[in-house]
Amino acid sequence: MSSITVDGKEYGVDEEGYLADLSTWVPGIADVMAAQDDLTLTDEHWDIINFLREYYEEYQIAPAIRVLTKAIGKKLGKEKGNSKYLYELFPYGPAKQACRYAGLPKPTGCV
Amino acid sequence: MGDMSEGGTTKKFLYLNRKASYGTVYALESLEVVLIAAAFEQDVSLAFIDDGVYQIIKGQDTKGIGMKNFSPTFNALGDYDINKLYVEKESLDERGLTEDDLMPLVYEDEDDDWAEKPSIKIVNRAEMADLMQDQDVILSF
Which residues, including other chains, have CB under 8 Å from residue B93's CB and lie 6 or more apart? Predict the structure, then answer.
């Protein structure tokens, strides 16, 4: 299994880069994963990452993109509840990329 | 046959859940298929009969069997526009259960100012048969 190193500690990831054990997640993991994608996380990124973690905590799944955009629009305002906004933040696909940073499994239904 | 809509035909899909949550993989597989297939925006209903009614019982605790408790995921179905969950009354009766033993699953009605409405409907065996008769596709788990 591959791993990433955050603050001197190693975390296992699967072949697609998703954290192997989501209970070990720390925010630094998201920063390191983002840096590997040449991305610096802003408060706007963290809004989405934190939302995904809360959603997973409540429902035990990562939401589909359609569900994510609707829920973000409701929570953070209409101007953010659309895929254009989310793709600007997470160019590799908001559901996949943001879930990976959040330490969640790949969203159900994402291939 | 269903209505024509943008990109194709909408069909009536019924996912029939007959088994309890954790003894076999059927319940979890069914739920995953439902969530994946929700992307195709079909007319989806779920039915719970026989031991399938145990899937949506409230207060599930899986610590003792070392498996993930996936029952909270049923609460997400409303977000996926899946809000027709039919539970057979006879199956509840036979197991000494009532509607009060089930999770209070709800959805937000977009056409009614996002009012929260119950997703679960208790039907008797004859109504369940009619419901099945009315479908284009039935997937049994």
Answer: none
**A97 close to A89: Cβ distance less than 8 angstroms:** no
Which chain A residues are closer than 8 Å to B73 by Cβ? 59-61
Residue A99 annotated in active site: no
Q: Is B76 on the interface with A (CB under 8 A)?
A: yes
Listed residue (B133, B78, B5, B87) closest to A67, CA to CA? B78
Strands A2-6 and A9-13, by their bridges, are antiparallel
Q: Which residues from chain A sit within 8 angstroms of residue B35, using beta carbons?
A: 61, 64, 108-109
8 A C-beta contact, residue A32 and residue A6: yes
Which is more confidently placed, B28 or A77?
Answer: B28
Residue B122's DSSP bridge partners are B87
Instruction: Report domain extents, chain A.
Output: 2-101
With tokens 């630094």, the residue in question is: A28
Give CATH for domain A2-101: 1.10.10.370
Domain of residue B60, residue span: 9-140
Residue B1 within any structural domain of the chain: no
What ipTM is given for this predicted complex? 0.81
Residue A111 predicted with pLDDT over 50:
no
Which of A55, A66, A68, A104 to probe by mutation at the B interface, max B CB count within 10 Å?
A66
